[in-house]
Design goal:
Blueprint lengths: L7 E11 L2 E9 L5 E8 L3 E8 L2 E9 L4 E5 L2 E3 L7 H13 L1 E13 L8 E12 L6 H6 L1 E6 H10 L5 H15 L2
Helix pairs in contact: 3-4
Length: 183
């Protein structure tokens, strides 16, 4: 009997590049010996930051074209091709988007964002002991974004009530909350 978990990628066809995203057609051999094709959106990876200013979490309210609305989220950004240190990338994105620097950093998790069709992984950090720096937004959405500090318990309530709907923000706040409650 074949291993029900053994799939083998037998061919990859690069379909196109769209900025930092790519599209690939992957051919798989299944555990039963069948051949199937799947489309994968390739992504360089990303980081996100649960930034704590005392008992407040820093949130960004910015327009997101895929949702066609303003979304509340934690600071985040894609990895650049030269990024080899995820914390340094997180430090860069936090400063760029919010103007904050953090003295203390802790990795919370790495997660798949849409594993059904994309290889994007995002690593989420907790940043504390913040100090103000100079914000350097990139792109129209970041320039128009509003930076807000929200009491952490209020942000957790907003996750539970469905007011915060961004997946990385939900995961980051919930894991940070679990760390806060664990002695």
């Amino acid at each position: 009997m074949s291993d029900p978990h053994h799939f083998e990628v037998t061919d990859v066809v690069h379909v196109g590049d769209f900025g930092f995203l790519g599209i690939e057609r992957r051919t798989l051999q299944t555990p039963t010996g069948d051949t199937v094709e799947r489309i994968v959106v390739t992504h360089p990876g990303a980081i996100a930051v649960v930034a704590m200013a005392g008992d407040n979490v820093v949130l960004i309210e910015q327009y997101r074209v895929a949702a066609n609305k303003v979304i509340r989220e934690i600071p985040a950004g894609k990895l650049d091709p030269t990024d080899t240190n995820l914390q340094e990338a997180a430090e860069r994105e936090l400063l760029e988007e919010t103007g904050y620097r953090a003295a203390t950093w802790r990795k919370l998790t790495t997660m798949w964002t849409a594993v059904g069709f994309s290889n994007e992984q995002i690593t989420i950090f907790l940043a504390t002991d913040l100090s103000a720096g100079t914000r350097n937004p990139e792109g129209a959405e970041e320039h128009a974004a509003v930076i807000a500090t929200v009491p952490f318990d209020e942000a957790a309530r907003m996750v539970i009530s469905g007011e915060i709907t961004d997946s990385k923000t939900i995961v980051g706040i919930m894991i940070a909350d679990a760390h806060r409650r664990t002695p």
